[in-house]
Amino acid sequence: MPETDLKQQLAERFREINGDHPMTDADDVYVSAQFVALEELCAVHRRDADAVRRLMLGQRLPLPGYLRSDGAEMVPADLFALADEAGGAELLEAWFTAHWADPVTGKAEWNAYLSGQYVCLHSVTPAAIQRKEHLTAAIGAAADEPDARSAQWLERLHALIDELDTLEPAFTAYDRLRFGGPTSRDTCIDAMRSRFPRPSPKAMSDGS
Prior knowledge:
2 domains; 12 helices; about 5% strand
């Protein structure tokens, strides 16, 4: 199949999942800084770009995270890392889903991984996915803890927020369009830091 047909098929699959939203100049700048064009990455790794597109369309590798406004398929620099660790793209699904005790959850996470929408992590690995889920759940439930708003509680909360901050990139306006609302950074990092400011050193030392 000609390259143009594969690129077109991949773009159509991408838009089926993400919707057809325009990329602004600011979106393009963000994506170019955070991701790499598929053809450039394949050249570095001496892989055939069309073969990789076929793996994506065949649900063996994740779709691109973004389509830049010039049509470039933008992917993470470590796109091939998990497949390499698993022993090949044909073994990746079994390796990936085995990280979850519940097969149903593992399959759901695999489908989410294939969508290319895990742009919420600097590095998309089962461990990072699980840690992000733990952190967002803990941050979301923190306000209901018995000692909420105490200095000790604030210290615990901000430790969770800071860890999540290290896992997640900044996101871009395009993400809020395709996800239909705020990102996890908006709700679990920025909003929580604004709602519950970090305790001052004096408050922490006083334990008040």
